[in-house]
Amino acid sequence: MKSTKLKKKLFSLLAMTVVLTAFAQQPILADETDEVSVDDRIAAVGFGKVFSSDPQKEILNIFKKLDTYTEKQDLKKLKLLYSEDYINNDGYDIDTYMKSVKNGFSSYKIKNLFTKVNNIAINDDYAVVHVTETGEAETLKPVEGIDGNGLIISTADVYYYLKRQNGKWKIASTNIMDETCSILYGSARSVYFSINVPSQVKSGSEYTISLAFAPMKEVFVAASLFSSPIIYPMNLPKTDFKAIKGDGVLERLVTANSDNYNEYAVATIGMTSPKMIADNQYELETTGSAIVMRRVNVFHPMPQKIVKKRADKPAEKDGQQ
Question: What's the alpha-carbon Rg for the chain, to the nearest Å?
Fold first, then answer.
């Protein structure tokens, strides 16, 4: 009976993840800046052509606006920074991506975010920007049986691809190389859960999901490991939970999907501790729960077709027919 209650709470947490995964996929904030840059103001009064443009500054300004509009949850202005034919490496077009961002905005409050621009490479009207994103947020609602809202911690390694359209830089696509997101409730907020997976696998191949954390005394930890395609809206499966031994490690072998989707490796975690209810009588009390996810990019290589050349016929000797 106690096991059934724990599973129900964990599945409730799993359902919450469907709306919170957008946190790991959307722009991360740095320092806030004015919505209209100095260059924009100059251009507005007709003197923009007098000054030579600096593509790198223009691109950095795009990211500052991206940060500002995300912090203000201004979807209308945020969408203007993207090309109409935007697509990311999960197959999200501009409409699907904005729906996922809107869904995320309704589920959490941003606490602390930072974007580090690692490199900008510009080639005429095209640019590639490599960034490292880190963020922290708080869910707007708790989960059943655990006091307090959840803590969300997210990191991502992303390449943004920009193109200049009608003199303005637009985000044309994004390629998320690596991404982790942890959603922690109750006593799980003070635990570091590490999920290990390969960053890229071939479609249909097997790989191992490994969950690890520092062992804890008098804490019973159960977890479920599985993989789920990155689609919108997400459809997370129900799976069995296994008790984690004292070494704090759980592993599972899974098979990558063959449906042209990237996927998340997911760990759903429940933590319980013994609680005395009478003399020499104890019951397990749920003290914490968590969802930990990490991206696995799935690639579908197209086999090369090798055309065999026909062997030339040997030259005929003189006098032979």
Answer: 25
